[in-house]
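Researcher: Please predict.
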Amino acid sequence: MTVLEKDILNILTEDARIPAEKIAVMLSEDVAKIKACIAEMEKSGLLVKYTAIINSEKTDNALVEALIEVKVTPKKKEGFDGIAKQIASFPEVKAVYLMSGAYDLAVFIEDKTLQQVARFVSERISTFDGVMSTATHFILKKYKIEGTLTEKEDADYRLSIQA
């Protein structure tokens, strides 16, 4: 990865809405060069998606979110990849990570109700060959998402006292 690619990614990670023209000014580079670099990162799969961070607690369409830890027996020649890809194929699944520790996979899902999340775990994930056990944790409140605090705090809570 080039220094220019790293610099562009750092800027886009902070705010994906920044246009190439502004990035070019920030990095003292030609706009065409910035656009070409971004296009190449998209084409190569380095830049996967631009997205908005939404505090679901502030919407009228709040979904139940859960972290499901999954312990699996890796398959010969596939390892953990096969089952991870199967789990990732469901639309309820928002992220799947291979982890160290007591469980092998961390699966983040969203659904409309607690019962639907429970049904997803018991009828889908638990039925895969190789799944030994699961542990489901419901997300109750998000304080920070993708490095961003969900609620802005006042800079100073102290009362002003004048004599």
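Model: The longest helix spans residues 31-44.
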